[in-house]
Design goal:
The complex is a heterodimer.
Chain A lengths: L1 H6 L15 H10 L5 H18 L36 H37 L1 H15 L3 H11 L5 H28 L2 H8 L4 H13 L1 H24 L10 H9 L3 H4 L1 H29 L5
Helix pairs in contact in A: 2-13, 3-4, 3-13, 4-5, 4-7, 4-10, 4-13, 5-7, 6-7, 7-9, 7-10, 8-9, 10-11, 10-13, 11-13
Chain B lengths: L1 H27 L5 H6 L6 H10 L6 H13 L12 H36 L4 H15 L2 H15 L12 H32 L2 H8 L4 H23 L1 H14 L5 H10 L3 H29 L1 H4 L2
Helix pairs in contact in B: 1-13, 5-6, 5-8, 5-11, 5-12, 6-8, 7-8, 7-11, 8-10, 8-11, 9-10, 10-13, 11-12, 12-13
Classes of the chains: A mainly alpha, B mainly alpha.
Chain lengths: ~300, ~300
């Protein structure tokens, strides 16, 4: 999140109409006012906590998630073991904590890569037009014509060793097009504005016009879409695990834990095994959507 | 109209070829022997390996393989699984369940999404609008499968109102929970779009005119506003088929319905590669065909497209 607000730092929302209003100002104002917006504050808190959990899980638990004792299988919560034990008798709290990394990594990588690809391909297609535009837009048509879940599934099935990279690759392959098309449309619009024409007449180079004048004004919806897509990536990762084409064991992920809890109706006997990873996943995806919605409102020039 | 239809049909061809080619490329060009990839960890007999090489024409050059395979698929021949059952028969027996689920979910989603959207749109900024915001954010963010497990737990295990899974109780009963979950999962964008569209239309000049000419509020909403507000909604409904089909794979798996999604996840567990590829490609083609039909019906609703 920090990175996004920083890339947005030097740019203006709509120089033609509101020359002085800077995007960073808007994001800062949003973050500063978060104490007055309980939902946003909660969302930011969740994102920070889960991010720390993903980076240094040791901060949250001293127990090794692979230190298991079958005799403890499915025991309920007890002091020192707030989430109880899973089927294999491993401490479930540390398992869930260690699962944060995979889920966050998939979500953030999918969002980040989609952002970069959409930015490059979208601005090339929108600004240069011609053959580049035709190639990129037709490729996007093909990808958009396919249901993501089904196409990803059949491809993932073919990979024998599936890790974070595999999942991210397949998801990005089928999600870049929507964002790209959106950016391309915005670039086409912005390109026509007077100040861009003026820059061109002044003899500013194409690349400079694109990077300094066009993109800063087209990037806002992209930031919002990327924030929203973090949760979508995490959801998809877990969905693949339930279907049996997700990340392979012995990795830790909320998706794998939900899948393990759901297989053979285990969770009907031990519902807590389903509850904890599902709750973490739901809270995190909810947090990213709430953040995205707030960013959209804050960055939308019409809203002020 | 004819020109529009021809154009739309011609535009589908690159998408059809492109998407099937992409799947074919990634399925059959993964490093290693594609036969072994299809089989997963399973050991195959000499004769099955030969049968698969034959079925996918693996001894031909790559492009020839692809076009032979595409030709078979378009003729409704999806090959055979490792037990020599026809994948086409499998699809035919599973298809009604998926249709029953998708159509009931579609109707429920239509009612839920449009009702909430219209209610919120007519009361902009007031309580129904806030409710709409909470509703859409919640169901947009929380994964559908979590809602599915929750529904199973509450209505199946605790309250005993509905069967937890399976289709033993037949059409309406067994499909209530899965269809409802699928509908809620996909109703958010619909509710949102309806609301935004209606809010925009209600601010238009012709609505003011209608009010000024003394039309009753009900008449203004029903005859003037909704008709115009629904245009983008109808477009979206057509596009939303993908999320319904994709979502139904997971929902069928969780609720143990023997539809295409259930067949697909069973095939993954049993490592029946030809079934995985066959059913997915069928779903893909089915999706392309339904979006084509939706697009061809669109001019009936929007005269601007008809005369373009």
């Amino acid at each position: 999140m920090l990175e996004e607000s920083e890339t947005a730092a030097a740019v203006e929302v709509r120089p033609t109409a509101e020359g002085t209003r800077r995007r960073r100002g808007r994001v800062e104002a949003l973050l500063l006012s978060s104490w007055r917006r309980p939902f946003l504050a909660m969302a930011l808190l969740i994102i920070v906590v889960v991010s720390v959990m993903a980076i240094v899980p040791q901060l949250f638990t001293d127990i090794d998630p692979r230190d298991c004792d079958l005799s403890l299988s499915r025991l309920g919560p007890s002091p020192g073991h707030p989430f109880g034990f899973d089927m294999q008798g491993c401490d479930y709290f540390s398992n869930v904590v260690y699962g944060a990394r995979t889920s966050m990594l998939v979500g953030v990588l999918v969002a980040g890569l989609t952002f970069v690809i959409a930015l490059v391909a979208g601005s090339l297609a929108g600004y240069y037009g011609g053959l580049i535009d035709t190639v990129i837009s037709r490729a996007a048509d093909i990808v958009l014509g396919v249901p993501v879940m089904i196409a990803s599934l059949v491809i993932l099935y073919q990979f024998k060793s599936r890790g974070v990279g595999t999942i991210v690759f397949v998801l990005v392959l089928f999600t870049w097009a929507g964002t790209m098309r959106y950016l391309r449309g915005t670039v086409l619009q912005v390109k026509q504005l007077e100040y861009v024409q003026a820059a061109r007449i002044l003899g500013v180079g194409r690349l400079r016009i694109l990077s300094r004048h066009v993109l800063p004004n087209a990037i806002t919806p992209l930031i919002v879409m990327s924030t929203l897509s973090v949760g979508a990536g995490m959801t998809a990762e877990a969905g693949f695990s339930i279907l049996g084409v997700g990340i392979k064991l012995p990795a830790f992920s909320w998706g794998l834990q939900i899948a393990a809890a759901s297989s053979d109706g285990n969770w009907q006997i031990a519902p807590l095994l389903m509850l904890f990873p599902a709750l973490m996943l739901a809270l995190t995806t909810l947090a990213f959507v709430v953040l995205g919605e707030n960013l959209r409102d804050a960055l939308d020039p019409r809203s002020s | 109209m004819l020109r529009y239809a021809t154009r739309r049909i011609l535009l589908m061809i690159p998408t059809l070829i492109g998407s099937t080619f992409l799947v074919f490329l990634l399925v059959f060009l993964v490093p290693g022997d594609p036969v072994l990839a299809l089989a997963g960890d399973k050991r195959l007999s000499e004769s099955s390996i030969r049968a698969i090489r034959e079925q996918y024409n693996l001894d031909d050059p790559f492009l020839v393989q692809y076009f032979k395979w595409l030709g078979n698929v378009l003729h409704g021949d999806f090959g055979f699984d490792f037990n020599n059952n026809s994948v086409t028969d499998l699809i035919a027996s599973a298809f009604p369940y998926t249709m029953a689920l998708a159509l009931s979910a579609f109707c429920l989603k239509l009612v839920i999404g449009v009702l909430i959207g219209v209610w919120a749109g007519l009361r902009e900024g007031r309580a129904p609008d806030k409710f709409n915001l909470f509703f859409t954010i919640f169901f947009l963010a929380v994964p559908g499968f979590i809602i599915a497990y929750l529904a199973q737990y509450v209505f199946g295990i605790k309250l005993h109102w509905l069967p937890i899974s399976g289709v033993r109780q037949g059409f309406p009963i067994a499909f209530v929970m899965p269809a409802m979950v699928l509908a809620l999962e996909t109703a958010s964008p619909l509710a949102r779009l309806t609301r935004t569209s209606l809010v925009d239309v209600m601010r238009a000049d012709f609505i003011v005119t209608a009010h000024a000419k003394g039309a009753s509020p009900g008449r203004v909403v029903w005859r003037h506003a909704l008709r115009n507000a629904f245009l983008p909604v109808v477009t979206y409904l057509g596009l939303s088929l993908a999320s319904l089909l994709g979502g139904s794979v997971l929902i069928e798996t969780i609720f143990n319905l023997p539809g295409l999604g259930g067949t697909l996840s069973d095939a993954i567990t049993l490592q029946q590669g030809p079934v995985v590829v066959g059913v997915s490609v069928f779903l893909l083609l089915f999706f392309l065909l339904s979006s084509l039909i939706v697009d061809l019906l669109y001019p009936l609703i929007d005269p601007r497209v008809r005369h373009a």
